[in-house]
């Protein structure tokens, strides 16, 4: 399947393996050489992984658009706004994909992509802090933990290791002057951060 004018993708997996990056570069270069636009959404967490960040910046250098978001709901690939490839199992994208081309599904998939795209930050733009001084990823982490997710589950959702989640929470707790996560939760609620 060859796209003619656009490939839009959403990649929620976080940091990518170097071998996958090298394979993707070959395909991406061929796509761009044919004049096809590339729009890619990836997780904010890749900004902390030098090989994946270098790949994202390389994409921009060859004319693609790359934006990041704190979370992404599903892996998807859409060709020419007409055909989408969606995972058979969203929790295990290696289980395969289904090709979808019916107008209703494509419209919904593109609406989701475009909504996230509009809120996402271009890869070369520093992530902005909100009025509370939180980065988008920190705010999303607090929301996930408030929903009862474990560090591991929240990290998986954000493309972060447990260690990084704990380091982020330690930084938030320090800013709040909290000595425990329970106290941090109370202060987050008191301050209206969620």
Overall helicity: 40-55%
Order of strands across the biggest sheet?
6-5-4-1-2-3-7
How can the largest sheet be summarized? 7 strands, mixed
How would you classify the quaternary structure? single chain
N-end to C-end Cα span: 43 Å
Stretches where pLDDT falls below 50 for ≥5 residues? Answer: none
What is the fold named in CATH at topology level of the largest domain? Answer: Endonuclease, Chain A
The helix tally amounts to 7
Task: Give the integer mean of the pLDDT values.
Answer: 89
In percent, how much strand structure appears in the residues? Answer: 15-25%
Listing every helix as H and every strand as E from the N terminus to the C terminus, the arrangement reads: EHEHEEEEHEHHHH
The appropriate CATH architecture of the largest domain is 2-Layer Sandwich
What would your notes on this structure say?
This protein is an alpha/beta fold. It folds into two domains: 6-122, Endonuclease, Chain A; 136-191, Orthogonal Bundle (Arc Repressor Mutant, subunit A). The protein is 46% helix and 17% strand. The protein contains seven helices and seven strands; from the N terminus they run E-H-E-H-E-E-E-E-H-E-H-H-H-H. The chain has a seven-stranded mixed β-sheet, sandwiched between helices. It is elongated, with a radius of gyration of 18 Å. The model has no long low-confidence stretch (mean pLDDT 89).
């Amino acid at each position: 399947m060859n796209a003619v004018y656009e490939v839009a993708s959403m990649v929620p997996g976080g940091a990518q393996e170097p071998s996958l990056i090298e394979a993707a570069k070959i395909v991406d270069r061929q796509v761009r050489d044919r004049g096809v636009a590339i729009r890619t959404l990836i997780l904010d967490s890749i900004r902390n992984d030098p090989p994946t960040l270098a790949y994202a910046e390389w994409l921009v250098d060859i004319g693609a658009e790359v934006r990041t978001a704190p979370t992404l709901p599903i892996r998807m690939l859409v060709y020419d706004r007409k055909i989408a490839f969606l995972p058979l199992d969203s929790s295990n994208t290696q289980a395969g994909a289904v090709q979808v081309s019916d107008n209703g599904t494509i419209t919904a998939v593109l609406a989701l992509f475009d909504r996230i795209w509009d809120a996402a930050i271009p890869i070369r733009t520093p992530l902005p802090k909100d009025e509370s001084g939180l980065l988008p990823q920190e705010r999303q982490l607090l929301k996930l933990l408030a929903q009862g997710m474990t560090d591991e589950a929240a990290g998986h959702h954000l493309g972060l290791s447990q260690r990084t989640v704990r380091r982020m929470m330690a930084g938030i707790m320090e800013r709040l002057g909290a000595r425990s996560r329970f106290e941090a939760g109370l202060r987050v609620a008191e301050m209206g951060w969620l």
